[in-house]
Design brief:
One of its GO terms (cellular component) is plasma membrane. By secondary structure, the chain is of the alpha/beta class. The protein is built from 14 helices and 17 strands. The strands form 4 sheets. It has a 5-stranded parallel sheet, with helices on both faces.
Length: 481
């Protein structure tokens, strides 16, 4: 069976239900049921009327309703029990309570228990119609907010997947997102390895004893597949299995296989399709990156990204930030007194120290952030989707970690090292790449001229950099003091 494979985010929400809705009316008085039913059908609602708590439970179990209108006094129970039943079993249904008691306590109790509205008899037609309309509007807004939150989470997950350039982390990020957001019970990722065919990239949730056999079967059945499809007869524990190809252009780069042990929400196919599309983008980037990373984008010593890649990703990040209104931040790091370590212990120790510093800094940031060696003993960290407040916290975490870490302990040296860090955020401090880098560098240099081992935030009134830094700083092969 072919499933939809969307090229963009799933659509938000749907048609609001507040214009015409299915209403369950609960009242033990027949005349009240008739009267209130007429009030509600007059404005287009479909009304089902019952006269007791038990009848209400049976109606809710057998049909779907948008709202319940209930009297507070019922035979065999009361309206509060209807309210509790709805809140526990049918959380998307709003409740309007009606009573003849002109007291504050029942109203307070009903509202605290989750009632959307509370009306006192006699109830005018306009009052009931307005109360139901307000309750349904509130319900629609809550559902839309939940949908927005889910879409924001999907956008962030998709970005994490698409920007990951390490295969192991890519598999983990993709399987985790598909499991949590597409409600899959298990996930298998198969990547096409050139002429060798499909190979396992990642797996989550499969029983270990079944994994090898299932993966072998999937490789065989999907070797020539080019479209989403249902896979039958794989495992009795998973009544439904869905395969979605990771496609770039006309090339199938792999397949994501989702296992479900029950019925999944109606948006699962679109959610999975969006996440798999970002996985395909990451696979394409991995293929391109692997061929040129050593020559073009990776620092020979630390294996961090180099300045060429930093400028490339900064250009892209500036463009994305302008389009999405999401901030990002830069941290500019310079090691304190690194030259004296070189002079005392030699350049070989200094080089090892730079490599270990790279590992320490990477351990303080998220997988989808970018850490680059800027030159000598300088590093730059790009923090995605992070404003200045968040960046300041990360910078302080790096500073404290560096300050307490014992470097080259395995070599018996246990050296202490600190760093100055400058922080600048886009678009708060700058609206172009060059200014952002300059402000982060100037903030860092303020610390170098002062006490060192400090974090400074960018400011427009910081002193200009010295001429030697404006002309290139310490350079890729040098070191600062």
């Amino acid at each position: 069976m072919t499933r939809p494979y969307p090229s963009s985010l799933p659509r938000l929400g749907g048609k609001p239900s507040s214009q015409m809705a299915r209403i369950l009316l609960v009242d033990d008085e027949k005349i009240a049921r008739t009267l209130y039913g007429d009030y509600l059908t007059a404005v287009g609602h479909a009304v089902t009327a019952v006269g007791s708590l038990q009848d209400a439970r049976e109606a809710l179990a057998g049909d779907r309703f948008d709202a319940v209108v209930t009297d507070l006094i019922l035979p065999g129970g009361d309206g509060m029990e209807v309210l509790r039943h709805v809140r526990e079993r049918h959380p998307g249904v709003e409740v309007v309570v009606i009573t003849g008691l002109e007291k504050v306590d029942p109203a307070v109790r009903a509202i605290k228990s989750g009632a959307a509205e509370y009306l006192v008899k006699p109830v005018a037609p306009e009052a009931l119609q307005h109360a139901v309309r307000r309750a349904l509007t509130t319900r629609d807004l809550l559902q839309e907010n939940a949908s927005l939150r889910r879409h924001v989470a999907m956008l962030e997950a998709g970005q994490r997947i698409a920007t990951t350039l390490e295969r192991e982390k890519l598999a983990s990020a993709t399987t985790s997102a598909l499991e949590s957001m597409a409600c899959a019970s298990a996930v298998v990722l198969l990547e096409r390895d050139g002429d060798k065919g499909l190979r396992l990239q990642g797996v989550r949730g499969l029983p270990p004893r079944h994994e090898p056999e299932l993966v072998a079967t999937l490789v065989e059945r999907l070797s020539n597949a080019r479209a989403p499809r249902e896979l039958e007869g794989l495992d009795a524990a998973f009544p439904r299995v869905l395969s979605i190809p990771a496609v770039e252009g006309t090339t199938v780069l792999g397949h994501a296989v989702l296992f479900f042990d029950g019925a999944e929400p109606e948006w699962t196919g679109e959610t999975a399709g969006y996440l798999v599309r970002n996985w395909a983008l990451a696979l394409r980037n991995l293929g391109r990156f692997a061929a040129v990373e050593d020559l073009a984008y990776v620092d020979d010593l630390t294996r961090l990204f180099n300045t060429r890649y930093l400028h490339l990703v900064l250009d892209r990040e500036v463009q994305d930030s302008v389009q999405t209104q999401r901030p990002f931040s830069l941290l500019f790091l310079d090691l304190d007194h690194f030259k004296s370590i070189n002079d005392t212990h030699g350049h070989l120790v200094g080089s090892r120290l730079l490599v270990e510093t790279a590992r320490v800094v990477k351990g303080c940031v998220r997988d989808h952030d970018v850490v680059a060696r800027y030159g000598g003993d300088e590093y730059v960290v790009l923090l995605r989707n992070t404003d200045s407040g968040g960046a300041l916290k990360v910078a302080e975490r790096i500073r404290r970690t560096m300050e307490t870490h014992l470097f080259l302990a395995r070599e018996g040296l246990s050296l202490k090292l600190s760093t100055c860090i400058g922080v600048a955020s886009f678009p708060e401090h700058a609206r172009d790449k060059a200014t952002l880098l300059d402000l982060a560098d100037r903030a860092m240099y303020r610390g170098k001229r002062g006490s060192r081992n400090v974090v400074y935030m960018a400011a427009l009134d910081l002193e200009p950099l010295p001429a030697e830094r404006r002309q290139g700083g310490s350079g890729p092969g040098g070191s600062s003091t």
